[in-house]
Specification:
Elements (H helix, E strand, L loop, with lengths): L1 H16 L10 E5 L10 E6 L4 E10 L2 E11 L2 E6 L9 E8 L4 E2 L6 E2 L10 H16 L3 H10 L8
Antiparallel strand pairs: 1-2, 2-5, 3-4, 3-6, 6-7, 6-8
Length: about 160
Amino acid sequence: HPMWDKPLEPLVLCLASQGDNVQVPRPSLSLHPSQGLSLGDNVTLRCHLPQLAARVELYKEGFSGLKKQAQMDIVQDMAEFPLVSVKGEDAVRYQCLYSVHEPPETSEKSEPVELVVTGEGTGESRWSLGASSSCTRMGTQPLSSSRTPVVGARPPSPSLG
């Protein structure tokens, strides 16, 4: 096995020296339109690339962390990911990353961009407003114990219907 160890050392050093992703600068993500979105609107997520990408991937924040939403192959300087008829659950944070063939590397994820839906005219604006405040409250209070009975009490409630 000593034969295996030797070629690995320079390789690791080589990777460490390029580990700052100098080769692969991180992309940036933007929303179009960037504000004033209502439920049912269309929005385009644009991943802006500093160089030609072999593959671009869009990630969406979910309960289990980031989930890959879509991908595109061979993109010059911008990848567009259209989101048609925005729903409440789309109002989360998104990130994109890209990979290149030569050298085969993957960029870091872009800064997260948050999709905010106002829900104008649909009576659902309390959804977007309530999301941020309830999140902060969850962090400060042990809600897990008081949450279970609430969930159980929901289905028979006449207001949902």
